Amino acid sequence: MSQVQSVEALERLVGSRPLGVMMKSLGALDAHCVRLLSLSSFAVLGFIDEEGRARLSTVGGPRGFATVVDSTHLRFELHEPLSLNPTVGCGLLFLIPGLGETLRVNGRATLDGNTLLVTVEETFVHCAKALMRSAFWKPPVSVVPTSLGPVAPGPLSDPAVRDWLSRVPFVVVASWDAQGHADVSPKGDPPGFLRLDGARVAVADRPGNRRTDTFHNLLEQPRVAVLALVPGEGRELELSGVASLTTDPALLASMEVAAKVPKVALSLEPHQARLRASPAVLHAGLWDASRHVPPDHLPRMADVFIDHVRQNPQRGAAAATLRALASKRMMSWALTQDYKRNLY
After folding, report:
1. Is the pLDDT of residue 220 over 90?
2. What are the residue boundaries of the Pyridoxamine 5'-phosphate oxidase N-terminal domain, all occurrences included (predicted)?
3. What residues pair up with 109 in beta bridges, in sequence order?
């Protein structure tokens, strides 16, 4: 299997991280983040458990289930007890029903009974492409399971796990850098986009916000968790193990969508697979279209992105130029064009 083993090799494939994209990141919750949290009813939580394993779980409830304590702290109640190592970072991906963009919050977490308190270190809004490609918020449709490829003995050999993976259009990936900072990132494609390769499951990389945080992290340390959701279902599948980056031509060719072949894929060797009921999906009413946020209540995402770029404290002439030239009209146009031309 062809592996990517350095940042230089990765950037030759997918490019470097653009300054403008990185400047959408803030170190605290601003008014836009607070508003998005007030509209969110569901999130995916990435953490390291007390045994040092990468884990993912879901949390949710009524809109605004996550309470903003102040600009660097938020808290919410867990549905089930959690084994969490507080010395390592955690990441959260908040979903707003009906909105394509997601809010990513990274930091540190502590537990007080079933209450999780998160100290925010980084926050930014992720583009809508993963949810658009997966048709995440559209009415669920019956999907004929697809062939995922050969499978070896192990967690992926369970027929229930294979059936679930064959119908998945959307996954969330949790990763950590060498210092223990977490990141939780969405990946989406038409149902059946995952591939099995022996004892590993592969996730295609598609155009997104171009931060490539997951890939940079696993080049530093390979422990990764993947959580797979199927619209309309009240369960979730969690895979936990070690990952690498592959450019295997045959594997990538099998992932072609809309005449586009991915340049790289994440290849996870799961040590554990947990297919379980998701209380968070139930409490959030995730698939109930009547509980989606009305379009006129949603923020204009171009406003959010531009305001975040302007608030970013990055120094230097290039950063100052970006802040000066950034306009909401330009951002709105750029987002529309990007979603049309670079969805795959």
Report:
1. yes
2. 158-274
3. 118
